[in-house]
Amino acid sequence: MKRDRLLVERILSTLRADSQASMTDIQLSKALGNVDASRLSHHLLLLQDHGLVEKTPNMSWRLTWNGHDRADGAATA
User: Fold this and answer.
1) Cα atoms found within 13 Å of the Cα of residue 13, Cβ hemisphere only
2) Helices then strands, each counted (H, E), the chain
3) Among 68, 7, 13, which Cα is nearest to 37's?
4) Quick check: 37 and 45 in contact, CB under 8 A?
5) Cα(15)–Cα(35) distance, rounded to whole angstroms?
6) Could you tell me the residue ranges of all domains in the chain?
7) CB 52, CB 67: distance < 8 Å
8) Phi, psi of 76 (to 5 degrees)
């Protein structure tokens, strides 16, 4: 599967905008317009590899400090 930079930025900005500060895979998929589960999972793992997101104990995804910095930069770009 090819990396989709637009989807990566959309994931980061969606997590950044969430009032609860974390989202499950299902919540993220719905917020992104029902992105295919395998495609979303692949990109979340890529973001995790890069240290931009992490999985919380309750199985949600949240931005790391670096993820917030990246999302802030993408928002101003």
Assistant:
1) 12
2) 4, 2
3) 7
4) no
5) 15
6) 5-76
7) yes
8) -95, -10
What radius of gyration, in Å, describes the C-alpha atoms of the chain? Answer: 11
DSSP letter at 18? Answer: -
CATH number for the domain formed by residue range(s) 5-76: 1.10.10.10
C-beta of residue 62 within 8 angstroms of C-beta of residue 54: yes
pTM of the model: 0.90
Answer yes or no: are the C-beta atoms of 74 and 16 closer than 8 Å: no
Best CA proximity match to 48, nearest among 19, 72, 75, 25: 25
Length of the chain: 77
3-state secondary structure of 55: strand
20-75 pLDDT, tens per residue? Answer: 889 999 999 999 998 999 999 999 999 999 999 999 999 999 999 999 999 888 65
Determine the 3-state secondary structure of 23 from DSSP. strand
